[in-house]
Amino acid sequence: MVQELLIELVKGIGRFFLHPAVYITLLFSILIGFYRVKRERRQLRTRILWGWTEAKRFLLDGYIWAIVISVISVGVGLVIPTSWLFIYSAWMIIFILLFMYQVGSAIYAIALGAATLYMMYVYDWSFHVLTWSLKGFDLLDKGIVPIAVLAGLLLIAEGALIQKYGARNASPRLVRTSRGIEAMEYITKRLWLLPILLVVPGDVIDTYIPYWPQFPLGESTFSLILFPFVIGFQQKSRHTLPIQFFPQYGKKVWQLGVIVTVVAAVGYILPLISVLAIALGLLARLIISYVAYKTETSGTFAVSPQSNGVMIAGVLSDSPAEKMGLLIGERIVKVNGQQVTTEQELYEAVQINAAHCRLEVIDFNGELRLRQHILFRHDHYRLGLILVR
Questions:
Q1: Residue 199, in any domain of the structure
Q2: Pairing state of beta strands 356-362 and 182-206?
């Protein structure tokens, strides 16, 4: 039995690399970085992050969550219908190919996949793709329960990723206000890939294991598969600073995920409740996105020129500015004892004592703090600052 499980686990991991979503997600992560750097160089004459950042981190950022969800999925026996996985994959890939990262949350493809599968069941539709035949499935026969629980867990993972990496990956974009003044908005666009180990109907794992599985779908044997779930995210902030906006946004998403997971689990008693859990997750996720969009596209810009100091719009990685702990949205009011109100005045003041730079900075709480750094010959000649003019 143990040997069969190990063989099946190896096969399940191998199937992961056959899924087109793995390579499509990698390709489009590369494209996200390419176009981001191209825009940053055009507008700001430099790049904020390395062009391969999105591609390098598309798998690394979420691997812990992939392990956690895999343990829960296999541990409680969330048996996922194979036909639903095919349909979910189709919707997920469509969103990626159309660059629709605004609807990249897994809840959208999960809900569409479940609705499509149920419609196929009601109207007796079927599709033939290569050697596979896809038919409808009665999701209300407990099949909806593991799907809804999985939707909640993926929402929790999505919110945690946004909370941790949203502000870190925010790219400044130069815009003009209605008064013709230059200001900055910040865009985060990411694709995260979570390889999650799932239990699916198969012919390897027998049901004589006492506690497992809990959601058998009428099947008697099961298999393991490592399946790629993609979480896409795109959001801009301009009324609120990225360091404040994205953690708050992510917190709302993972809190929603907790609610959806709990409600979905109750569906084990009455499957219709799990349907309501998916509907709740879909509607609430749309509301979170809409409210954030309306809030950030109205009102004043958080980063715009100020009369009492020079506003920081961006900080280059591994630069003197980063080593001094300078942050987006802070205002530099004095450099080496000299009052500064423009970029030119700032860099002229730097030359007063080019070897040892002392800055007086007003943070976003209105408090004054002193930052200083010894400048070396290899340091960025602009301190690594992106400023609004």
A1: yes
A2: unpaired
Are 128 and 240 within one domain?
A: yes
Instruction: Say how far apart CA 183 and CA 205 lie, in whole Å.
Output: 59
Alpha helices in 191-313, H assignment, sequence order: 242-266, 271-296
132-149: pLDDT as tens digits: 667 777 777 768 999 999
How many distinct structural domains can be found in the chain?
2
Task: Estimate to the nearest angstrom the gap between the alpha carbon of 357 and the chain centroid.
Answer: 37
Question: In the predicted model, what is the mean pLDDT of the chain?
Answer: 86
Q: How many CB atoms lie within 10 A of CB 377?
A: 6
Tokens of 7: 């063989």
Quick check: bond before 247 cis, omega within 30? no
Q: Is residue 305 part of a domain?
A: no
Q: Which tens digits make up the pLDDT trace of 72-98?
A: 998 888 888 888 998 999 999 999 999
Cα 240 to Cα 327: distance, rounded to the nearest angstrom = 14
User: What are 259-294's pLDDT values in tens digits?
Assistant: 999 999 998 888 889 999 999 999 999 999 999 999
DSSP notation for 122-137:
HTT-EEEETTEEEE--
By DSSP bridging, strand 338-339 and strand 356-362 are unpaired
Q: Are residues 57 and 102 in the same domain?
A: yes
Backbone phi, then psi, for 226, in 5-degree steps? -90, 110
Beta-bridge mates of residue 216: none
Same domain, 257 and 318: no
Q: Helices 20-44 & 82-97, crossing angle to 10 degrees?
A: 20
SS3 at position 235: strand
Which helix H or strand E contains 188, and what residues bound it?
Answer: strand 182-206
Q: Which of 250, 269, 296 is the last residue of a domain?
A: 296
Other beta carbons less than 10 A from residue 372's beta carbon: 11
Range of the domain at 229: 2-296
Q: In what order do the strands lie in the sheet with 171-176?
A: 171-176, 182-206, 221-237
**pLDDT at 214 exceeding the cut of 50:** no
Last residue in a domain, options 296, 329, 364: 296
What is the spatial distance between Cα 301 and Cα 221, in angstroms, rounded to a whole number? Answer: 58
Per-residue pLDDT band for 206 (boundaries 50, 70, 90) equals: very low
User: Which pLDDT value is given to residue 9?
Assistant: 61
